[in-house]
Structure formats: structure tokens, C-alpha cells
Design brief:
Elements: E1 5-7, H1 12-20, E2 26-27, H2 42-60, E3 65-75, E4 78-80, H3 86-96, E5 100-111, E6 116-128, H4 133-141, E7 162-166, H5 169-173, H6 177-187
Parallel strand pairs: 1-2, 1-3
Antiparallel strand pairs: 3-4, 3-5, 5-6, 6-7
Helix pairs in contact: 3-4
Length: 193
């Protein structure tokens, strides 16, 4: 381990966002199962999973700062995960079409050796234009929806469907950088000189 910071995620989008900030870090994905607990709110869900991911990796590397994160998309009180089939991706796009939905990311930063840590959830409202059946079919054929919560990527081809965004753009990509950097600075995990 060459760095004192670990990203507990295999998400290429989170990796790119942290690299964009000029941070040096190692990537060690957690082994946490991204399941849904009965009766929990979307906020409770992302906080629980972000904390669990940071704990899982932090217990193995107690002398490092660990970042855990979990992102969900929800609309009409339904959480949309990552689509596993063409049909599921199309169903998600139909559900998002012409509506505002919410992207919620839980972030957790911990250093177990120092007994320091914090977590929070960041929410962003995103409005999708009314999509035609042809646009939905075309987008699913690109393959982009399949590893993304809600079945679209705002930073990629899916940007064509975004009518407006209210809140953190990087949250919609998968890691709210403003809030994360503030949290890391507050905890002493990051020093800007």
C-alpha cells in the first residue's frame, strides 16, 4: 500500500473523479453485498451501504483513510438499481422518461486507527426529457445503461436525455466531490496547502 487513502469501490467513475482532484489513493473494493433492507428509506439505504463498505475495507487496513460510497436513483418512491437485462433497462428508462427523479449518494470516510469518521447523504434532482421508444432502444443498444444505477450515465451518452439538474453534478456521476472534500478536510484526511 503506497498511499494513505483507499477508495473502497471498483467504480471507474468514482476512480476518475478522485483522480481529477489530483488525489493519490489505492483502490480496494469492498466485499459488501448491495442488498436492500426491508423498510429502510433511500437515505438510510445509501448511508448503511457506504458505512458498510468503509468498515469492510477499513477493518483490513486500520491505518488508512477509507472512502466508502453508494449511489441509488429513485423515482415515484421506487429505487432503481443497475439493470441486468435489456428489458429491465428499457423499463427503467420508461419510468424516468419525462420526469424528475433523485440521485442519492451516501459517502463515508473513516480511519479506524485514529477512531475518526463521518458519513452523509447527498441528493440531486435530475429531470429527464420525454424519451421516444426509438431513443430508448438505441440507448440500451449502446450498452451504457448496464453498470449504472438507474440505467443511465450522465457523463456519457446518456447526457442527451438530461433536461435539467438541481444539485451536485458529481453526485449524479457517483461521488459528490464538494461534500466529500469538505468531509475529508474536516476529519484531517486531506490537507490543502
Amino acid at each position: 500500500m503506497k498511499n494513505r487513502l483507499i477508495l473502497a469501490s471498483k467504480s471507474p467513475r468514482r476512480y476518475d473523479l478522485l483522480k481529477q482532484m489530483g488525489l493519490d489513493f489505492d483502490v480496494i473494493p469492498s466485499n459488501v453485498e448491495e442488498d436492500f433492507a426491508q423498510g429502510e428509506s433511500p437515505r438510510e439505504h445509501v448511508i448503511r451501504l457506504a458505512e458498510a463498505k468503509a468498515l469492510d475495507v477499513g477493518n483490513r487496513f486500520p491505518d488508512h483513510w477509507v472512502i466508502g460510497a453508494d449511489t441509488i436513483v429513485y423515482v415515484d418512491n421506487i429505487i432503481l438499481g443497475k439493470p441486468s437485462s435489456r428489458e429491465e433497462a428499457l423499463e427503467m428508462l420508461k419510468r424516468l422518461s419525462g420526469k424528475e427523479h433523485w440521485v442519492l449518494t451516501g459517502i463515508s470516510v473513516h480511519h479506524f486507527g485514529k477512531r475518526k469518521g463521518d458519513c452523509e447523504a447527498v441528493q440531486t434532482a435530475v429531470k429527464v426529457k420525454t424519451l421516444t421508444p426509438v431513443e430508448m432502444e438505441w440507448y440500451v443498444r449502446t450498452g451504457e445503461p448496464f453498470d449504472k444505477a438507474g440505467g443511465y450515465g450522465i457523463q456519457g451518452i446518456g447526457s442527451f436525455m438530461i433536461e435539467s439538474i438541481n444539485g451536485s453534478y458529481t453526485n449524479v456521476v457517483g461521488l459528490p466531490l464538494c461534500e466529500l472534500m469538505q468531509m475529508m478536510s474536516r476529519l484531517g484526511a486531506l490537507r490543502i496547502t
